[in-house]
Structures are given as C-alpha cells and as structure tokens.
Design brief:
The protein is of the alpha+beta class and about 200 residues long. The protein is built from 9 helices and 5 strands; from the N terminus they run αααααααβββαββα. The chain folds into 2 domains: about 10-90 and about 190-200, Orthogonal Bundle (Ribosomal Protein S4 Delta 41, Chain A, domain 1); about 95-180, RNA-binding S4 domain (Structural Genomics Hypothetical 15.5 Kd Protein In mrcA-pckA Intergenic Region, Chain A, Roll), CATH 3.10.290. The longest helix is centred in the first third of the chain and has 16 residues, at about 45-60. It is globular, with a radius of gyration of 18 Å.
C-alpha cells in the first residue's frame, strides 16, 4: 500500500476523531464514510479493535505498514514497556519533531520540508523523514529556507504549543531534542496496549 494521499475527512470519520488534523466534516457528519455509515454498527471483534488502533497510529504518524512493523520490532527489543517504547520511537522521528517544534503546520508538510532538504540536524542536511533523533540533537532550518512562507506562517501560528522534551529558539530557528518523552506527555489518543496485543498474536 502506498502512502495515503486521499481526503483527510474520510479517515477522521472512519475513526470518529480528527486523526489527520481538525476537520469541519467530522462535525457535520459524525458517522463513518460509505453508504452504510449511518446504519447500525455491528459489534467489533477484539481483532478488529486492535487492528483499527494500529491503523490509526499509522495514519497519525504517516507510516507505511513495513515501516510501522520495523518500528514495533525495535520497540520490542528495547527494555521497558513495548507500547510506550513504540510511541517514543515514533515521536523521535525527524518529520514528527519538525512538526512538534512548530516548523511545519502538519506532519505531511514536515515530511515535505525534510525531503526537500530544508532541515538540518546538528548542522548537516538530513532528508530522511524517518531519521531517529537522539537526546541532544539540534534541529534547525537551513539558512536559505528561513524565509519560506510555510515555515514563517507555521512559527507565527497561534496554535503552536510547547512540549517538555523539546527546546526551541525562535531567533535562531533551531530546536533541541532533549529526551524521549514520557507516555503522559504524548498528546495522541492511542491505546498502545491494543497494538502490542495485535502484534503478539
């Protein structure tokens, strides 16, 4: 399956929450898409609930199936709680961190900025969205990209929020990845235990 590029509202309606960002369509049509969307919903099996949670996490972070499986494999090899490790690894991705720092308005646009070589890590151009950051890494905007409209608009957005595991210097247009976040600091509504149970089958 290729990366999803279809309508965001369809995915949000499928899961009943703004998975790919806030969307007015979800308020107007708060039922699943398709001709049977308004019909009475059948009780989902345990497997279907677990699968839906994994699919939701994939859509939120913009990963393909193999990428997600590989990330889960890495999380399961680390010490500690596998589900929490998974979310920490997803949060440490470069594209996600660019989004969290407020350099890009969405994870999709953050991915584009990384691919088009607008982002530096420790002073070097890194164009791999899945690049995994380590504590102390410095993420900055390339000098010739600092005037890009998408970046300046995003940084001046009133919706920008700060996160405890990140540090941002607006004057230098650079941030620091301080540490892996704790589970309670990650705002995404994901039940990671369901994903662990799915992969444990």
């Amino acid at each position: 399956m290729a990366r999803y590029t279809g309508p965001k509202a369809k995915i949000s309606r499928k899961f009943g929450e703004p998975v790919l960002g806030n969307n007015k369509a979800l308020q107007k049509k708060n039922y699943p898409p398709g001709q049977h969307g308004k019909g009475k919903r059948r009780k989902q099996s345990e497997y279907a609930i677990q699968l839906a949670e994994k699919q939701k996490a994939k859509y939120i972070y913009g990963l393909l199936e193999r990428q997600f499986a590989n990330t889960f494999e890495k999380a399961s090899r680390k010490g500690g709680i596998t589900g929490e490790n998974l979310l920490k690894l997803l949060e440490a991705r470069l594209d996600n961190t660019v989004y969290r720092l407020g350099i890009a308005p969405t994870r999709r646009s953050a991915r584009q900025l990384v691919l088009h070589k607008h982002i530096l890590v420790n002073g070097e151009v890194v164009n791999i969205p899945s690049y995994s950051l380590k504590a102390g890494d410095i993420i900055s905007v390339r000098e010739k990209s600092k005037s890009l409209e998408v970046i300046t608009n995003s940084l001046t957005s009133a919706n920008y929020r700060r996160f405890n595991w990140l540090e941002w210097d607006n004057a230098l247009m650079s941030g620091r990845f301080l540490m892996y976040p704790d589970r309670e600091q990650i705002p995404e509504k994901i039940n990671e235990q369901l994903i662990v149970e799915l992969y444990s089958k």
